[in-house]
Amino acid sequence: MSRRPYIMAGDWIDIGPAACVISAVREEGHQSGDCEVVFNALRPTRQDVEWDGNEWRFATRANSTGAADQYPRLAPYVAQLRAGRP
Question: Could you say which of 2, 19, 53, 74 is the most buried, measured as most Cβ atoms within 10 Å of its Cβ?
Fold first, then answer.
Protein backbone atom coordinates (compact mmCIF):
# COMPACT_ATOMS: atom_id res chain seq x y z
CA MET A 1 0.00 0.00 0.00
CA SER A 2 1.21 3.45 -0.82
CA ARG A 3 0.45 6.94 0.37
CA ARG A 4 -2.17 8.92 -1.45
CA PRO A 5 -0.79 10.60 -4.58
CA TYR A 6 -0.50 14.37 -4.52
CA ILE A 7 -3.69 15.84 -6.01
CA MET A 8 -5.15 19.29 -6.62
CA ALA A 9 -8.55 20.57 -7.70
CA GLY A 10 -8.67 20.51 -11.49
CA ASP A 11 -6.47 17.40 -11.82
CA TRP A 12 -7.72 14.43 -13.82
CA ILE A 13 -7.81 10.92 -12.33
CA ASP A 14 -9.23 7.66 -13.64
CA ILE A 15 -11.50 5.44 -11.59
CA GLY A 16 -12.02 2.28 -13.58
CA PRO A 17 -13.14 3.46 -17.03
CA ALA A 18 -14.35 6.86 -15.72
CA ALA A 19 -12.26 9.96 -16.45
CA CYS A 20 -12.82 12.31 -13.51
CA VAL A 21 -11.97 15.92 -12.66
CA ILE A 22 -11.11 16.56 -9.00
CA SER A 23 -13.35 19.31 -7.61
CA ALA A 24 -12.31 19.27 -3.94
CA VAL A 25 -9.38 17.82 -2.00
CA ARG A 26 -9.74 16.83 1.64
CA GLU A 27 -7.20 15.88 4.27
CA GLU A 28 -6.21 12.23 4.28
CA GLY A 29 -8.57 10.09 6.33
CA HIS A 30 -11.48 12.55 6.08
CA GLN A 31 -14.83 10.87 6.82
CA SER A 32 -16.24 11.95 3.43
CA GLY A 33 -13.28 10.59 1.49
CA ASP A 34 -10.02 11.95 0.14
CA CYS A 35 -11.59 14.07 -2.57
CA GLU A 36 -14.66 14.84 -4.62
CA VAL A 37 -14.77 14.42 -8.40
CA VAL A 38 -17.09 15.14 -11.29
CA PHE A 39 -17.45 12.65 -14.13
CA ASN A 40 -19.79 11.67 -16.99
CA ALA A 41 -19.90 14.62 -19.39
CA LEU A 42 -23.39 13.68 -20.64
CA ARG A 43 -24.90 13.56 -17.13
CA PRO A 44 -22.38 15.31 -14.88
CA THR A 45 -22.20 13.55 -11.55
CA ARG A 46 -20.31 14.43 -8.37
CA GLN A 47 -18.93 11.62 -6.22
CA ASP A 48 -16.74 11.30 -3.16
CA VAL A 49 -13.57 9.27 -3.75
CA GLU A 50 -11.16 7.38 -1.53
CA TRP A 51 -7.57 6.23 -2.01
CA ASP A 52 -7.36 2.57 -0.94
CA GLY A 53 -3.57 2.44 -0.89
CA ASN A 54 -3.33 1.19 -4.46
CA GLU A 55 -5.96 3.00 -6.51
CA TRP A 56 -8.81 5.51 -6.44
CA ARG A 57 -12.29 4.16 -5.65
CA PHE A 58 -15.72 5.74 -5.56
CA ALA A 59 -17.08 6.03 -2.01
CA THR A 60 -20.25 4.03 -1.39
CA ARG A 61 -21.61 5.86 1.65
CA ALA A 62 -25.03 7.53 1.65
CA ASN A 63 -25.00 11.04 0.14
CA SER A 64 -21.63 10.47 -1.51
CA THR A 65 -23.01 11.19 -4.99
CA GLY A 66 -25.32 13.59 -6.79
CA ALA A 67 -26.00 15.62 -9.92
CA ALA A 68 -23.01 17.94 -10.38
CA ASP A 69 -24.84 20.49 -12.51
CA GLN A 70 -27.08 21.35 -9.53
CA TYR A 71 -24.13 22.79 -7.59
CA PRO A 72 -22.95 26.23 -8.79
CA ARG A 73 -19.55 25.68 -7.09
CA LEU A 74 -18.94 22.74 -9.45
CA ALA A 75 -19.61 24.70 -12.68
CA PRO A 76 -15.89 25.22 -13.54
CA TYR A 77 -15.18 21.50 -13.10
CA VAL A 78 -18.22 20.45 -15.13
CA ALA A 79 -17.00 22.79 -17.90
CA GLN A 80 -13.51 21.24 -17.70
CA LEU A 81 -15.04 17.77 -17.84
CA ARG A 82 -17.12 18.63 -20.89
CA ALA A 83 -14.10 20.17 -22.65
CA GLY A 84 -12.21 16.89 -22.19
CA ARG A 85 -8.67 16.07 -21.24
CA PRO A 86 -5.99 18.25 -22.79
Answer: 74
